[in-house]
Amino acid sequence: MCFLLQNVHHDAITGWLMLASMTYREKQYINSVRILDYALSKCTPEKTQFKSRLSDLHQNILRLEVFQKKGIIRSLSILYMGFVKFNKLSNLIPVELEMEVQEVFHVIPSVVYAYFLYFLCYYHSQDVEKCVVVLQNLNLTIHGNVFILPDDRFKAISYNILGIALQITGDKKSALETFKQAVELEPNSVYHSAARRAAMLKTT
């Protein structure tokens, strides 16, 4: 818990998502949703992705007195949107994603992971209406590259996450199509389980 609380200051959102993961694993779905609500409230337009070049807007923000007082490192942590990283065999990752960390660590764009975790919470709470809304938001996030680095690997990971959600709902056809998109973008199975999941899905 202490480690998680320290990480809420790592960047704008990642630490909160890890905390939401922990509460999800403990089946505290309402608490997890509340944490996710707070985390996503930090996803404002002035935020930038980790490793992205600072725009004129971001440079001007950093020149503001309030950020000058915080120092450059703390200020950048407020402005940056990172990705969620789960270590190999992590006990914080949702059980639905354990395949991703069987052999190596796994990273997921923060907002993509937030919507996926929302979906899991609503799914287990049997709130079908909210599941549909969250899946739509997840789909729009991926297609619009919202807070996702312009990199095929991260896009593929995002499609894999969407495919897993669709598979959970029982939409086999859409899941297979989405896994296919992930593999086309990044065929290396080290980065995601889309090919393995698709193969397993075809046998069911």
From TrEMBL:
<feature type="repeat" description="TPR">
    <location>
        <begin position="156"/>
        <end position="189"/>
    </location>
</feature>
<protein>
    <submittedName>
        <fullName>Uncharacterized protein</fullName>
    </submittedName>
</protein>
<dbReference type="InterPro" id="IPR011990">
    <property type="entry name" value="TPR-like_helical_dom_sf"/>
</dbReference>
<dbReference type="InterPro" id="IPR019734">
    <property type="entry name" value="TPR_rpt"/>
</dbReference>
<keyword id="KW-0802">TPR repeat</keyword>
